[in-house]
Amino acid sequence: MPTFLQPDESLGSFMMKSLVFLWPCPPYPHLDGLSRLPPKQNDDGLLSVPAEYEALDRTTPEPPDGSMSDFCKDRFTTKYLKDLRNKAIDYCGPGSGPSAHLTCFHSHTQSDHKCDSFCIGQGAIWEPDKKKFSLDCRVRNPDGDEQARGVVPFNAIHMYWYDTGPRYVFDNLIEFGGSEAASPPPPPAVAPRDPTPPFTVLVKREGNSNLWHALMEVWSMTLSLDVLRMSRDPSNNPNPSSSSGSDSGSGAVAGAGAQPFFTVAADVPRTQVLFLDDFGDGPLFELWKLFAGRDPVRLSTILADPERSRAFAQSPHTLLLPLPGASNPLWQNDWEIRDDCRHAPLLDMFVRRIMSYFGISPPSETVPSSLSIWGSKNMGKLITFVDRRGSRQLLDQDNLLTSARSKFPGVEIQCVDFAALPLPEQIRVVQETDVLVGVHGAGLTHIMFMRQGEGAVVEIQPEVMSHKGFRNLAGMRGQNYFVTHAEMVKKEEDKNNKRRVKRDEWHWANVRIEEAEFLEIIELALNSLDGEALQAVELQ
């Protein structure tokens, strides 16, 4: 039987009594990073952010000194989730089926004024002959009030690079029941909700090998689901007469009695990611189950099996078209220094969830930093060099690392090809690392998995670059950051390669750095480990 908080019961007593109900035993032990507690209703009638964010805010609150800019609040705090929730619309207008809903959520943080969107479609039917989902929804345009609070016309939902995002899904996998209608619908008649329809997440990936791109895609999916956990579902409204499209401008799409679109306890077991691409699994394949109780599956696998395709059509689907990876706010943090974004609860939560998923705990410190050997205050520190095997290799790296080992006795220096390791092992390596060193590239994504506030990062950029993304990421995770620029050296076989010449040279050229400069920046990074103030230094 479920356990409920009694009016005269303390929260601590309730939590102790309810521990057994927080998460079941297998098959979902990897979901310990998600709270099963239902959302609370705020004084304004809106649902609260998921409980795990509230707990994080209590342990790492926003800086009280006003040092955090609106730019950062809008992208890296729970304000990002709330703004998406408050810019929602059910696009299904008059003439739509009673169980059909297409609710889309919009964000306006891009510098080019484009809108980022994700959508949830309810009552979709898989049609094996057409190889598409059908949704009995006559798409309408938003009214003036809806547009005033940030809702955009349905045709303004755009395509992203690599042909990704909700627009790709709409154009290729969903057939609608009608055309656009000019006027908004009256309060919809609410059909009884099927308590067990599959919750299917439709994803076309950008690729499967680049760690940064893949993490942005998974993170964007989890942000979409977090918004659904705090947004009311018009198809689950016990008081239909209170449903009001714009709900006094709040962005709610259902009345105060409606439940959220997604709850961990009820919906995780029926959730599955459906890949619309045929890429290999890649290193992050497991992470697509962060909110899913079922293993990911490819659409091509279903299409190749007529029996499975027919079974897929047995019941209506709830479809999630999540935010694409290219919309992730971290992409908007690349070209300007953002020292005002040190507080980033959305990033912190994503990292915590991944660590929890893989059962990784921060290692205990085995050698106090105050000890010394051979006059080295850095005895026992670990430097990890990102060993690139494709483009942008550091020339003469073996000799450079040998020189560093000689100059810094007592410091362990390892060279790691992260691409050759499973993701959990990659994270464990980085968790033990004090200084992460690498040429600009996806390997430096691991900054986010270093022990928060305890390390340093050295980035070697090609000489023409002025990228700030990894500097800003280091600041958000409390790591000291050091950058230097290296000479670009074309590989002989690439000088006449027309395909590569078309791209910016830094994408593929190797780099070369003088030994003295390499040792200097390593020393600066090691020395920063004992400092109290966070450092960000560009070596000239």
Automatic annotation (TrEMBL):
Q: Which residues cross the membrane?
A: none
**What is the catalytic activity of this protein?**
L-seryl-[protein] + UDP-N-acetyl-alpha-D-glucosamine = 3-O-(N-acetyl-beta-D-glucosaminyl)-L-seryl-[protein] + UDP + H(+); L-threonyl-[protein] + UDP-N-acetyl-alpha-D-glucosamine = 3-O-(N-acetyl-beta-D-glucosaminyl)-L-threonyl-[protein] + UDP + H(+)
Among the GO molecular function terms of this UniProt record, one is: protein O-acetylglucosaminyltransferase activity
In the UniProt record, does the keyword Glycoprotein occur? yes
Q: Which residues form the Glycosyltransferase 61 catalytic domain?
A: 345-455
Its GO CC terms are: endoplasmic reticulum lumen
What the entry lists under InterPro entries is as follows: Glyco_transf_61_cat, Glycosyltransferase_61
> Pfam families, from UniProt?
Glyco_transf_61
The entry's protein name is EGF domain-specific O-linked N-acetylglucosamine transferase
